[in-house]
Amino acid sequence: MLQDIDIDLLELRFEKWDINFNESDESIKVTGALDNCSNELFELLKEICLVNKYNLTIELRNENKINVLVKKGGKKKKYFKMYTSGCFDIFHYGHLNILEKSKELCDYLIVGVSTDELIEKEKGKRPIIPFEERIKLVRAIKFVDEVIPQVDKNKQRIVDKYNIDAISVGDDWLGKFPKTSCPVEYFSYTENISSTIIKNTLQLL
Known about the structure:
With 205 residues, the protein is of the alpha/beta class. The protein is built from seven helices and nine strands; from the N terminus they run αββαβββαβααβαββα. Helix 3 (93-105) links the parallel strand 5 (79-86) and strand 6 (106-114). The mean pLDDT is 79.
């Protein structure tokens, strides 16, 4: 099984590469700079494959960095790459619910976190939690593969730039979400929980 691989030992041997095991879908993501040694990358993949007797799927993406996703062969997910976004000011279960459901539909989930400037422009006030803290929190969620700043509400720009196959959002946006060239998946809004409710309860507004 992929769990049998000693990730810590691999990171010591292949220190130029960032190696992460995702328990939710039993996959290993290997990330590194373009100028890293490609021979070393293939040696690393060989080590991963030798430990496992499963059929493995290797997906190679080449942008500003190399991402290799090694996972068990199995049921293909509905989308390869999805995008969702939010302020995530006071993170709560409703946020986690959308991220988890989005990851169930895709192999690679990109999350946009609104900058302080965008929130102030949209809502007339700065967020409670600063951008750098909010983006670190979202990066730590196991369902999230990549986090980017959301500097505006132009969803089509993100779709084009990152080759997004679908966008996910809460169903409170149904009928109000801007049109894009890709499908939009609506998830049920988590009742009785929102950042506004929490702020009101804590008397932060």
